[in-house]
Every structure is written in structure tokens, then in C-alpha cells.
Amino acid sequence: MLRGMSNEAAAVTADAQEIAQELTVLRHAVHREPELGLVLPRTQEKVLGALDGLGLELTLGKGLNSVTAVLRGAKPGPTVLLRGDMDALPLQETAVHEVPPSRFDGVMHACGHDLHTSMLVGAAKLLTARRESLAGDVVFMFQPGEEGDDGAGHMLAEGVLEATGTKPSAAYAIHVSSGLVPCGVFTARPETLMASCSDLRVTVRGRGGHGSAPARANDPIPVACEMVTAIQTAVTRKFDIFDPIVVTVGSFHSGTKENIIPETAHFDATIRTFSPAAQEKVRPVLLDLVQGIARAHGVEVEAEFHGLYPVTVNDAAAYDTVQRTVGELFGERRFVRMPNPLAGAEDFSRVLQEVPGAMVFLGATIDGRDYETAPFNHSPEAAFADRVLPDGAALLTQLALGHLG
Average of pLDDT values for 376-397? Predict the structure, then answer.
């Protein structure tokens, strides 16, 4: 037992290790059959099978393959929500490690959601065994569609926060990382943890013609190119460097042949902000910018701004709880404070807008790789270590016990 570890914490970590192999088997099964978006029938079936016999109240999503599982404690009290996302990514897996590879071409668990699913199942098992000591209820939120489909938003709309009849007073989630921090180390920060995410889609409509006579046409390509470079200038001139934004144009398409001036040019950009104020400001600034450039060149422009996920903000008190709980379970060296927010985005942000809570990252770099140089999440070479599964399950369990004790 670690010095300072309570008997309860020691029992939780020991029991988590007892089911480690069970969680590994589940993780491999989910990894082997990854599914995309909101429709995850195979994954949902595996989760329901793993929860069978626990006596949980189960509700399945109507518009998505979600699972909401409720554990009623023996005594009345508040509700705590624990979340695990389940969807995969449209990537062809190239990672070679101990986990059986995806059997579906072009689909893989490159962001570790297979681990999140298994950890949440583990927490359900550990907490069910402690039902008699719970003064309150637990909601286990098995969520599809985190990767751009706003699964959290769908589950909120379908009532996940009302699952027990009492709105949760705390919410927690773990996200594994194939790099970032050493394997087994947890990291988080109070306040802003991750950026918001929005999309800008722009179509410039000019007038086509022969490449040898541009004056007789109205070429949309240089106009669109000017917009792309002007957007980058706006990042540095319209926004506070201490409240930054990140804009990346990841898609640009136009034309069919070198001597044909096309009718249209189209580009898509992803936009990340780190505060609600910057998120609100970026829309009018960029829309006005592309529309002004279009007017200057006498072309038409269609510009659409789609807000996806808000800023992920950890409650300061919940962050302190996570840090303290990691120390109780595993020792203080297993937690480091994240120095800066990540520019990635998360739809758990929607839950944290409604419920005070926290998301924490867990290093899961596989043996033989350096966490500082390992292929990162969303890479076809991304890989995650099974050995962090019981630690994640134990942390979720202890966070719930601490809230309902």
C-alpha cells in the first residue's frame, strides 16, 4: 500500500487489477470492430454484454447507439456522471503492437475510445460491487459520435442529465493519449483544457474562361488564395495573442486542367479558440473578411460558419479533486499539471457547460516508444497500452466514491 493511501483507495486499485484482463479482452474486441459516428450497433452490443448482470437501469439512444446506465446507490444522495466515448476514426490502421488490428478497412480506433469504453465498463463493475456504500446515484454515459458528430449534444437532448431524476452535480471523463505524458501519468489543468472547434466553408464563384485570356474571365483561384492568406493575417492582427486562435485551411479545390479558368474555388478551414469571447468574435471577423475580398474582386462568395464544440472548461474544484484522487490512488508523481490548453476539441465540453466537472488525460504510450516522439492520437500508427485500463477504471470509480461518500 502506498504511504497515505486509504483502505478504500487500496481496495479500489486492487479490485481494478483483478478485472484488468477482463477489460483488456473487451478493449480488444471493441478495437477489432471499430465503428464510425452515431451508429455503433456492434459496439453497443458489446457494452450491453459487458454490463449484463450488474443490475443497472439501461436506456438506449433513440437517434444514436448510445447506452445510458444508471446505478442506484443504497442511500439517497446526489448524482455523479462518468463518460466514455465509443466511436472510431476513418483511418487505415498501420500500427503494429499487441492489440489485434481492425478487421474493417479504413476504420480504426486511433483516438483510444476503445480504452475509454472499457474503463467505463470497469468503473461500472467496481461501483456496482460497492452499491451498499453509495449515498447517491451514478450515470454511466456510453457515448457515440464524439469525432465530429456531437454525440454528447445528442445524448443531452435525449435526456442523459435527467437519467436519475436528479441532475448530476459532478461529471468526469478520461481521455488517453498515445503521447503527451509518460505511460500511466495523468494530466489536466483547471479552467480551459481544450479549444472550441468551428468550421469555415467558403466557395468563391467567378467566371470561367481560357487560361490564355484571364481578362475575359474572372478567376476565382487567386481570390480564394488571397482569402486564405488574409485569414492568417487576421489571426495575428485581429485577435489578442494572449487569447489566441488557430486557423488551418485543410482543403482547397478548384479546376480541372491547367489551361481552363474554373468557375469556382472552394476551401474548408478548421478554427480553434480558447475562450468563449474569442469563439464569439471569430465568426463575424472571418465572414466579413472573405466577403470584403470577394467584393473587391467582383466575384460572389458563399461562406458558411459551423460551430461544432465549445471550449472544454474544467471546474477548478473538480480539477483539485482529480489531482488529489490520483495522488491517493497512485501517488503524487502520477499526476502533472498540464501547462497549456490543447488545441484539440471535445464534445464533453457540452456536459461541462451544464455540470461542474473535469476531463483528465492519461498517458498510454506503448512499450518501445518515447512518449515525446510517439505517433499521436489520430495517426494511423497511434497505439495505446492495455496496462492503463485498470488505472483509468480505478480513477473513475474513486472520483464517484468521493462524490457520493
Answer: 97
